[in-house]
UniProtKB/TrEMBL annotation:
<dbReference type="GO" id="GO:0019251">
    <property type="term" value="P:anaerobic cobalamin biosynthetic process"/>
</dbReference>
<keyword id="KW-0949">S-adenosyl-L-methionine</keyword>
<dbReference type="InterPro" id="IPR002748">
    <property type="entry name" value="CbiD"/>
</dbReference>
<dbReference type="InterPro" id="IPR036074">
    <property type="entry name" value="CbiD_sf"/>
</dbReference>
<dbReference type="GO" id="GO:0008168">
    <property type="term" value="F:methyltransferase activity"/>
</dbReference>
<comment type="similarity">
    <text>Belongs to the CbiD family.</text>
</comment>
<keyword id="KW-0169">Cobalamin biosynthesis</keyword>
<dbReference type="Pfam" id="PF01888">
    <property type="entry name" value="CbiD"/>
</dbReference>
<keyword id="KW-0489">Methyltransferase</keyword>
<keyword id="KW-0808">Transferase</keyword>
<protein>
    <recommendedName>
        <fullName>Cobalt-precorrin-5B C(1)-methyltransferase</fullName>
        <ecNumber>2.1.1.195</ecNumber>
    </recommendedName>
</protein>
<dbReference type="GO" id="GO:0032259">
    <property type="term" value="P:methylation"/>
</dbReference>
<comment type="pathway">
    <text>Cofactor biosynthesis; adenosylcobalamin biosynthesis; cob(II)yrinate a,c-diamide from sirohydrochlorin (anaerobic route): step 6/10.</text>
</comment>
Length: 370
């Protein structure tokens, strides 16, 4: 089954800004614009939904996000760009100023969550359209961003009150589309022929941390949310050991027997965390406080405020449970001849990409792969 890739949010933000600037130039209706993706090096056509002048020298344009064949909550969300054309340098030699408006999250220090690729994309596409004496102020808006952000783990990584313009490429790979699973399986099969121990990374944060720790990149397998299917595939390929790398708010689902980790499928993170806290002997009042937290990150912060090393006790048990449930899942679904045929160890990190806990098995496996 062929899967259709779409584009990341920065591409639609850039397209809206280009359309608004072009409308200021010509005052004509604009149905589409060309965007140079930079990464990869290709130019694509993006549909424009609406464009209008707001006042002299100011225009607004709207696109709608299309992430391709992906379970992405930003699908069809409107992406606005308001541009104001002027003359003279904005500051020093800068000709382009980029700001985040409603729905664009912000990070510590109140900086808008507009990352390097988005800035590069806007800069290279817009500055080539400016005349020598012109400057441009661009304000990006995601009217639905604040409400959509409540359904993401943005806050866990320090982005609040909106979505981020994240990514290192203009292409949105359909990691959650069923067809993508087959591609992941093929990659795993190839790597299983070379390595007895593979490192499963849930998302870009896990890949980044694993690489910085010195793990051979060739061992890394990006799983997206297909953890259960790929664990079984590893068992069928007779991989001897698997090291799981992931954000604690994602991997904790495995401790509850949830092996497809997309939030559209299932979510019991706080219930799992509370259950492990109860099993560790945490008082009832503290259990209630953790259960009422909005996120597992808040639950972790609460544990850190308590006397005693509850974090190590609770998350150590969670990591051990993840190891055991993954091993059992492989045994049950892959037809392995021995329950101990695949060894699984887990490494959980926090919002700062710092290791929160690693299971005893993970400690042993890390020595093999680093």
């Amino acid at each position: 089954m062929e899967v259709r890739a779409g584009y990341t949010l920065p591409v639609f933000a850039c397209a809206s800004a280009i359309a608004a600037l072009n409308h200021l130039r010509s005052a004509r209706s604009i149905r589409s614009v060309e965007v140079d993706l930079i990464a990869p090096a290709k130019t694509v056509t993006i549909a424009i939904e609406q464009v209008a002048n707001l006042q002299p020298g100011v225009a607004l344009a709207i696109t709608r996000s299309d992430p391709g064949d992906n379970l992405d909550l930003t699908r069809d969300t409107p992406v606005w760009a308001m541009v104001r054309l002027g003359t003279g340098a904005i500051s020093g030699k800068t000709r382009l100023a980029i700001a985040g408006g409603e729905g664009i999250g912000h990070m510590e220090g109140d900086a808008p969550a507009i990352y390097a690729y988005a800035k590069q994309l806007l800069s290279e596409n817009l500055e080539r359209l400016l005349k020598a004496d012109e400057t441009l102020h661009v304000t990006l808006l995601l009217p639905e961003g604040r409400s959509l952000a409540k359904r993401t783990s943005n806050e866990a990584f320090g982005v609040v009150e909106g979505l981020s313009l994240l990514g290192t490429s203009g292409i949105a790979q359909p990691l959650s589309a069923p067809g993508q699973l087959e591609l992941f399986r093929q990659e795993l099969q190839q790597k299983a022929q070379r390595f007895d121990c593979l490192v499963f990374c849930v998302g870009e944060n896990g890949l980044d941390l694993a690489t910085k720790m010195g793990i051979e990149p060739e061992r890394l397998v990006k799983t997206a949310n297909w953890l259960g299917s790929l664990l079984v595939e590893a068992g069928m390929q007779q991989v001897k050991s698997i090291l799981l790398f992931g954000y604690h708010g994602k991997l904790i689902k495995l401790a509850g027997g949830i092996f497809h980790t997309h939030h559209h499928v299932a979510d019991a993170r706080l219930e799992i965390l509370t259950a492990h806290c109860a099993n560790a002997g945490l008082p009832t009042a503290d259990l209630r406080a953790i259960f009422e937290c909005a996120t597992t990150e808040e639950g972790l912060k609460y544990l850190k405020t308590l006397e005693g090393d509850w974090v190590t006790q609770v998350y150590g048990a969670i990591a051990a449970t993840i190891d055991r449930r993954c091993r059992d899942y492989i045994y049950t679904h892959s037809g392995s001849s021995s329950e101990a045929s695949v060894v699984v160890g887990s490494v959980l990190f926090d919002r700062s990409r710092q290791i929160l806990i690693q299971s005893q098995i993970a400690t042993t496996l890390l020595k093999q792969v680093c």
